[in-house]
Recover the amino acids of this structure.
C-alpha cells in the first residue's frame, strides 16, 4: 500500500478514535436511568457515576503529551484503545457503582489522551495541503460515533435490567478493532525525527506517502525542531 491509499488508511485508522469518543459520550445518556434503578442511587451519586468519564478525560488531556512524546503517537493511541476495551468490558460486568466509576474513569482518561494525540498524529503524517481535510476525519468520526450510539440505545432499551450492560459490551467491539488496526499504521515521521533522530525510518514512511516530497518534508521537520530548541533556550 502506497501513496494516497496508504495515507488515507493511516489517517482513517487513527481518526477512528473519534468514533470511540462520540460513541462513549452519547452512550452514557442511555444508561442513566437503568443504572440508578439497578444500584438504587441517589441523584448525587448518579451524577458522580455519570461524570467519571468526563473527569478522566480532563486528566487524560492534561497529561496526554507525556506518553505521546515519550512512547510515540502510535503506541500511545494503541494503549488508549486498549484502555477503552478494558473499560467497556469492566463497565458492562460491574457489580457495584464503585467499580463502575473506576472503569468509567479509565475510559475517559484514555479518550482524553486520544482526543489530543490522534489529531496530532494526523497532522504530522499528512502533506501540508491536506492536513486540515484529514484532521476533519476525526471530527466526522465523533459525529458518526454519536449516531451509532443512539441507534444502539434504541435497539437495546427494551432489554430489561441487562440492556445497559449490553450497551457497554457493544462498545468493546470498536475499541478492540481500534487497537488492532493501530498496529498496522506507521509511526509519526515527525516523532521519529524530533524525538528519536531516526531519519532512516522517517524517510521510509514518507516515501510511501509521497516520494517526491521526502527531502523537503524532512528539512521542514528538522527546521521546526531547531526553531523549537532555540525558542526554549531563549526562555
Amino acid at each position: 500500500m502506497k501513496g494516497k491509499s496508504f495515507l488515507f488508511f493511516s489517517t482513517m485508522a487513527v481518526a477512528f478514535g473519534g468514533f470511540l469518543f462520540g460513541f462513549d459520550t452519547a452512550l452514557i445518556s442511555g444508561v442513566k436511568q437503568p443504572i440508578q434503578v439497578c444500584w438504587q442511587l441517589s441523584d448525587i451519586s448518579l451524577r458522580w457515576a455519570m461524570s467519571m468519564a468526563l473527569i478522566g478525560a480532563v486528566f487524560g488531556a492534561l497529561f496526554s503529551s507525556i506518553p505521546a512524546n515519550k512512547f510515540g503517537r502510535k503506541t500511545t493511541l494503541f494503549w488508549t484503545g486498549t484502555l477503552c476495551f478494558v473499560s467497556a468490558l469492566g463497565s458492562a460486568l460491574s457489580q457495584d457503582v464503585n467499580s463502575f466509576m473506576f472503569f468509567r474513569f479509565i475510559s475517559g482518561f484514555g479518550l482524553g489522551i486520544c482526543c489530543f494525540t490522534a489529531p496530532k498524529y494526523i497532522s504530522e503524517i499528512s502533506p501540508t495541503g491536506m492536513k486540515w481535510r484529514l484532521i476533519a476525519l476525526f471530527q466526522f468520526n465523533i459525529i458518526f460515533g454519536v449516531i451509532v450510539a443512539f441507534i444502539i440505545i434504541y435497539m437495546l432499551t427494551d432489554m430489561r435490567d441487562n440492556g445497559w450492560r449490553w450497551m457497554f459490551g457493544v462498545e468493546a467491539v470498536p475499541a478492540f478493532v481500534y487497537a488492532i488496526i493501530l498496529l498496522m499504521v506507521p509511526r509519526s515521521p515527525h516523532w521519529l525525527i524530533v524525538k528519536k533522530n531516526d531519519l532512516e525510518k522517517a524517510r521510509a514512511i514518507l516515501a510511501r506517502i509521497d516520494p517526491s516530497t521526502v527531502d523537503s518534508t524532512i528539512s521542514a521537520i528538522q527546521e521546526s525542531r531547531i526553531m523549537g530548541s532555540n525558542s526554549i533556550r531563549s526562555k
Remarks:
- Residues 56 and 109 are 4 Å apart (CA to CA).
